[in-house]
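Minutes, structural biology subgroup

Action item carried over from last meeting: produce the structure token record for DNA repair protein RadA (Kordiimonas pumila). EB confirmed the sequence was re-checked against the source entry. Recorded below for completeness.
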Amino acid sequence: MAKPPKSYVCNNCGTAYRRWQGKCEECNEWNTISLEDAVVSGAPKGLSGKKGQTVALVSLDEPIPDAPRLMTGISELDRALGGGLVPGSAILIGGDPGIGKSTLLLQAMGALALKGEDCVYFSGEEATAQVQMRANRLGLRGAPLKLGCETSLRDILTTLDSSKPPKAVVIDSIQTLYADHVESAPGTVSQVRVCAHELISYAKRRGTIVLLVGHVTKDGQIAGPRVLEHMVDTVLYFEGDRGHQFRILRAVKNRFGGTDEIGVFEMTGIGLEEVPNPSALFLAGHNAREPGSAVFAGIEGTRPVLVEIQALVARSSAANPRRAVVGWDSGRLAMVLAVLDARAGLGLAGCDVYLNVAGGLKISEPAADIAVAAALVSSLSQIPLPDETVVFGELSLSGDIRSVAQTEARLKEAAKLGFVKAMTPPSQKKTDKDIGIEQQTLARVSDLVAHFFPEGIN
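Output recorded by EB:
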């Protein structure tokens, strides 16, 4: 028998090459290409002349079989999933080590097992005794959850096929599994791709919900080939800072619901607890009378969230002033600073700038531009924003402030938490009579700067 051919595969994107090279031409990453053995199988290299089977085609108006979602009982997890678990779906959950991925899934599977659902938890990183100890700490000692410690894909599939298909299966983690017909180490591109394909095929064939735990790289991306995220139905990222007790479960892909939906949890000694009102949690300890602080009314998925943005501006004599950003895009900060310099003449180019989003939340929507600008100007002028004021709006390169979506939802969330004023973009409907918030319209960035420098900039 001829020796299986070998190829060089990028560990970041999965692109194959005939020979080794330092840089991947697809993802532009360096030193990610390694030698991978091809999968040993009896499949022919080509389709040849053999005919295939006819595929049954259906029309769009045919009735859809009723497949209700399976509610986990953890409302924040169900929210991130779009309303619960869908039978036959494959879900990938990634996050930093120790962030709480295994704890969350163990709590969810334990809650389903207590409701009478048949659930299986396979751990490739811990012994069953370790999982049992964690379950006892989480108060799940009496949950009829089936545990297994195995890394062989063949043994896992044989175990699942030996009885009635369970409702849900957890694989912790996909990087620890190995297929014995692939001549490479666990965690490599070939192994991850083959193992994920077999588990997803089992989920579609049996109607079982498969939840895969994925390791992440130093950049925060799920390790292994990028094709893994394309294969599954839902991709969830578990975010958070170990210095904070808050955890954010964010959906970045969901074939059965909206993307960018979040669930908020708090890490405690007895596991993860849901946070039904994250705005109050993120604003805990907020001091409105301190310069350099602004409250941003944002939207995460379908949920309005209020979060504090903190800025510190200090004059610097260095040739290259420092820019430190936590929780926001550093490129976006550079743009806001450039607009403030060019359109308002603040002269921030020679200042050290430190920006922080309180609570460990990561913000990506452009509506935070004006809140960041307000915090920066407040820190520079040493004048705080008015009490009980929220700020939102998108900043353009010309210095204009553009309107954003879901203004009413942002204002209602602010009013619910006791805010009475809002700095908003123009061309928005005045809803202060219905919501109880006084709106101050900002048409240009100069209008914002004039609030802190009424007599002009010296």
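Discussion: The longest strand covers residues 303-315.
Next step: EB to file the record with the rest of the batch.
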